[in-house]
Amino acid sequence: MSHPYPHIFEPLDLGFTRLKNRVLMGSMHTGLEEAKGGFEKMAAFYAARARGGVGLIVTGGISPNFRGRLTPHGSELSRFWHVKKHRIVTDAVHREEGKICLQILHAGRYAFHPFSLAPSAIKAPITPFKPRQMSERQIQNTIQHYARAARLAKEAGYDGVEIMGSEGYLINQFLCERTNKRTDKWGGSFEKRMQLPLEIIKAVREAAGEEFILIYRLSMLDLVEDGHKLEEVIQLGKAAEQAGATIINTGIGWHEARVPTIVTSVPRGAFSWITARLKQELQVPVVACNRINTPEIAEKILADGEADMISMARPLLADPDFVNKAEQGAPERINTCIACNQACLDHVFKNQRATCLVNPLACYETELVMRKVDSAKRIAVVGAGPAGMAFACYAAERGHEVHLFDQSEVIGGQFNYAKQIPGKEEFYETIRYFEHRLRETGVALHLGQSQSAAGLQKGRFDEVVLATGVKPRDLDIPGVDLPHVMSYLDVLRDHKEVGQRVAVIGAGGIGFDVSEYITTTESPSLDPDEWHKIWGIDKQYNNRGALLEQRLAEPNPRQVYLMQRKESKVGKGLGKTSGWVHRTTLRNKGVKMLNAVTYHRIVPEGIEIERDGEKQLLAVDNVIVCAGQLPLRPLQSELQSMGISTHVIGGADVAAELDAKRAIRQGAELAAII
């Protein structure tokens, strides 16, 4: 039988060592690096991915010295006593026959502390601290610190290191005129600006020896003004190869770039074209990355000769067994990463531990454990939204007899609305995954059925779990019952006709989703060329940083007012790493975002509001209400009065913004102890 993904599973010979397949687990900071007992937890986390079939793992970024730390208490590898902790991780990975590299990352001006250093004393827009300009001595010391970190990494049992040269960190800062204004031998011409990465590669190679994987993460697209030119990227790639790099990995976009690079609205495999361009120029293997989340897209990139390896970070957070499932020819069983960032990057940027919205066990492998039960219970779950589905699968996996009821004919709950939002097509994948998982774990599914307390009592269930979700909050505004007033369900569930001029009440996640839905004719996430033009990415690479002079204006069929009562900035409560993308998208479509609004009344001509002491009538055809939700738990008190053990999870428990991350985690945590 021929394999469905022959290119993914072709071994890669690096000369002194061999990788069993073409999947690299990309670097990702988890927050365990600094946590108490974090190395033991990290060992379990990486071991699960090694067991899941990954060819080569790269750790989160570890600084080579104190000043390069990302945060004041960030991880560094600079002393012999650090080695022992790292051994816990490498031993765990090697026991699973995996290979692992340590990423060495110096934050430069991105450091979130007052001791930061950079090529020039220019503050980054994403941190409050202005760096000091590095002296010649500090530069020489830093080169030696990289070499020392590599030597210690080898002692700790790592199979190699990755030198982080992209995403706007220290090395990237030296490479670009934007951040390097030096006039000595480390600044000026590109030849001088690229001395730092080359000196580091040589020093690392000398310190660690020939038989040691050295990955250089090359910033192929800076996506900022005064970034690299294509010729410079090629020149540096070739020089890095000459200096001793074993593999060249792709870096896309600085953290301060105003172009999305990994959020869910970025088309799948959107940046493989630039890796393909570099691959033509280089001899060593090159790695494609960013928004590669299915075996199909990984296989296509490899088969088309665009790269020699595929890097995935978040998809392996979502499913540690991604590679094994692909190898078994069972891609439908993969828990697909939906690129939401809500539990991974958003957590890390708030100094919380990373995990995963669709896989709450990620980074909690030692704490949230699903052990087989001694005596099985008969459990009813009412509501097949994210919380109900997650609970049902985990509980059935542990050995309980689980019956899942929903009055709808389909599973998925609120995910069925989310998946229709342009740029959120990935939510289809989560529903597909749960369909297979429910079947696989033997959950009895009863769709199209409303439940009563008496019916559940008759079913003789030991426990009942209510995951009945939410209902839209009613607004207390005169005129709210007029025919041109709609709820978000009228739009996303019932697909009612919406007029040309619209006022949206409530600017939380649902208000933004509805605004996006009614202002988009065709989702650019499904058309990479269109998406590149909308975000101003120059695929011809004629300009520095690969930015177009002008962005393509997206057609918008409607005039929309997105309003909130709060005085804070509209969209402030959206995800830390993705909120700006939603705000920018709507702003570019001409959506008017109004804060500090008082709603007086809705009239046939539109809605009367007051702002800054001024009353005005917004003449609109429809008013769409997205003003939050209330928990829907109709059976709770009745079940409890019957003495039936009842648990409430998900939106039925707390209805604040539709929070799938909390819902799925709550389902998992209850399933682990029931």
UniProtKB/TrEMBL annotation:
User: According to its UniProt record, which cofactors does this protein need?
Assistant: FMN; [4Fe-4S] cluster
Q: What is an annotated GO biological process for this record, any one?
A: fatty acid beta-oxidation, unsaturated, even number, reductase/isomerase pathway
Is Metal-binding one of the keywords UniProt gives this record?
yes
EC number(s) from the headed UniProt entry: 1.3.1.34
Ranges where the NADH:flavin oxidoreductase/NADH oxidase N-terminal domain occurs: 8-331
Which UniProt keywords are listed? Flavoprotein, FMN, Iron, Iron-sulfur, Metal-binding, Oxidoreductase
What one GO molecular function would you report for this record? FMN binding
Q: Which Pfam families match?
A: Oxidored_FMN (PF00724), Pyr_redox_2 (PF07992)
Listed InterPro entries? Aldolase_TIM, FAD/NAD-bd_sf, FAD/NAD-binding_dom, NADH:flavin_oxidoreductase, OxRdtase_FMN_N
* Residue ranges of every copy of the FAD/NAD(P)-binding domain listed in the record: 378-651
By sequence similarity, the record places it as follows:
In the N-terminal section; belongs to the NADH:flavin oxidoreductase/NADH oxidase family.
What name is this protein filed under? NADPH-dependent 2,4-dienoyl-CoA reductase
Q: Which organism is it from?
A: Aliidiomarina minuta
Q: What broad taxonomic lineage does this protein's source fall under? A: Bacteria, Pseudomonadati, Pseudomonadota, Gammaproteobacteria, Alteromonadales
